[in-house]
Amino acid sequence: MPARLTEFLARRRRLLALLVHAGPGPLAGLLAAHLVTALAAAATSVATGWLLTGALASSAVGEILLPLGLVAVLVLAGQCVEIAREPLDLLAARRIDGALRSAVRDRVARPSGIAHLEDLDHATDVARVSELGGWRTRTPGTGAVGQLLLLGRLTSAVLCAVVLAWFAPLLAVWLLAVTLVMRAGIRRHWVRLSRTWDEHAGARRRAEYWADTLTESPAGKEVRLFGLGPWLTERYREQARGWLTEIWRDRRGILRRQWWTFLLALAAGFAALYVPGAALAAGTVDFGGLITMVLAAWGVFAAGAMGHEAFDIEYALGALRALDRLDRHVAVRAGGDRPAPDSPVRLRFERVGFHYPGGDRPVLDGLDLDIGPAEVLAVVGRNGAGKTTMIKLLTGLHEPTGGRITLDGTDLADVDLTSWRRRVTAVFQDFVHYPLTVRENVALGAPEAGADDGPILAAVAAAGATGLVDRLPDGLDTLLTREHSGGVDLSGGQWQRIAIARALFAVANGRQVLILDEPTAHLDVRAEAEFYDRVISAVSGVTVVLISHRLSTVRRADRIVVLDNGRVSESGNHGELMDHGGEYAGLYRLQAGRFAEDTEGAA
Ligand SMILES: Nc1ncnc2c1ncn2[C@@H]1O[C@H](COP(=O)(O)OP(=O)(O)OP(=O)(O)O)[C@@H](O)[C@H]1O
Question: Most buried by CB count within 10 Å: which residue of 114, 355, 477, 497?
């Protein structure tokens, strides 16, 4: 068998195999319903012909009871199947879609790093497999059901051709050939349309972003204040027009190019009526035979009509290809089975280089940095210097593109990341506001540790959030979201205290490296002033990496490094760096000077 045909059949089989996700009961029902539909046309042609022959030969009802009953059963079965098939199709399609969405979630969640989450092609493939609802009536599930429908139609056509061949073999072959050629021709157009649809998956996702920005709450303030409504609507239309124009061009193309199928259909239809008519005139068939021939011919012909299942199938095949790409994208990181040390470790960046995929310049370039056990290291540098990126590498969310990071001399690439992440905790700049209770928000820092009052309240107190929690209606059990009744939302600074409590809870449960990226950005002046004593000095025996643009927050660190051009440009404690008179000293004086000016101005 030619390789292309083998591949074609393998892909179709894979699509049909998705039907098992419908579950045994619905799958049995579905197969039975499609089988009845597939048999119905051929059986009806034979039974109707038999009935007519019998009715013309004798007026006694008893003589035609059997064919009459058969026709009645076929009509009734057809009606029942029609009623049952639609809900069964829908149920199967939705269950398949659910299973594929789970598969997508699994593939997205499995990698230990986040490179795939920052890759647009990956996001588009995720949308290809899991987009559902709204104006998108095509899903992998409808494609799998469509494939079954198509199989049923083809079976029906072949069975009708067999019935027809009994009377007129040449006509049967001719009609079957014409029907298949018509199908293949029309399918080509549908494939093209489906490719266009698939190519624009990214544009659809972008259009949706603008629609969501317009209608959902996070951007609501700015949309109204800046008067962005019409602009967003136009932006959405512009994105949507981009792909809809091409889709409609293809649709019109399908109609334009179908003239030859009309001609073929006309020729086939003429033959389907002429040959039985001629046979009746020649006396080779009776009236019942004529009806059987015409109905069987029509049954062959009906399979040529191209329903939307062709498009559904192509769409679903595209989704399966996207799923395979997700598998490749989401290759689980190799190696890494050495457990992370469970005592405070020496962390070293050794000539570490890193550039983001598609980035035009390295963010880190030969970074050498040694962080001692239980050292408090502050990292400063201008916007975009690579501070957060350095943290992503240290936590194994990205891998260095050059050099290596070691934990007590062991390459991080060889360390089991799950065990390493039991040793590290972080408050990221863009930490997550989980729509959960305060207790749960804090407990998520060490999910294995439970959420008893004592340790949670201790972490809350260490983060300076006791007063805040006391004022909440349900204390620790207050839901931190407005999406549910009884829930409250917090201010930026209040959320930051909860995030710090989460990290301190993690430290209390064995994390030995505490990373704080801009932990005081939202805190008020008093809280910022207390921050070092309250949080940093209070965690003992823990390595702290503290990133901040507020130099008053970092000045008491054991050591401060300035990151510039992807490597460390200055290193020392506050006093040493001030004496050195480099960038740090300049920035510090600038901040302190502005503060002094403001104070003098106010006085
Ligand atoms: N996911 C990403 N993909 C591509 N480039 C990125 C990505 N994240 C960051 N960058 C780029 O990497 C550089 C360093 O970013 P990073 O967030 O590490 O800087 P930073 O020092 O933490 O900055 P800031 O002080 O503003 O927080 C920036 O030029 C940024 O544009």
Answer: 497
**What digits encode the pLDDT tens for the residues 518-567?**
888 888 888 887 888 888 877 888 999 999 988 888 888 999 999 999 99
User: Probe ligand 1: pick from 354, 387, 399, 569, max atoms within 8 Å of CB?
Assistant: 387
Based on the domain organization, do 322 and 369 belong to the same domain? no
What is the distance between the alpha carbons of residues 278 and 282, in angstroms, rounded to a whole number?
Answer: 6
Lowest mean pLDDT among 3-7, 312-316, 527-531, 558-562: 527-531
Asked if residue 338 is part of any domain, the answer here is no
Domain presence at residue 364: yes
How many domains does the chain contain in total? 3
Atom index in ligand 1 nearest the CA of residue 381 equals 21
With a threshold of 0.90, does the pTM exceed it? no
Interface predicted TM-score (ipTM) of this complex, two decimals: 0.97
Nearest to 297 by CA among 425, 419, 167, 187: 167
Query: What's the CATH number where 463 sits?
Result: 3.40.50.300
Examine the domain organization and report whether 469 and 522 are in the same domain. Answer: no
Q: How far is the CA of 386 from the centre of ligand 1 (A)?
A: 6
Q: Which amino acid is at 175?
A: L
* Ligand 1 atom showing the smallest separation from residue 118 Cα: 1
Q: Kindly state whether residues 439 and 292 are assigned to the same domain.
A: no
Atom number in ligand 1 closest to CA 391: 18
pLDDT at 12 exceeding the cut of 70: yes
Which range marks the domain in which residue 135 is found? 3-329
CATH number for position 264: 1.20.1560.10
Rg over CA atoms, the chain: 35
The Å distance, Cα 515 to ligand 1 centre, comes to 17
Nearest CA to ligand 1 atom 13: 384
Phi (first) and psi of residue 348, to 5 degrees: -130, 130
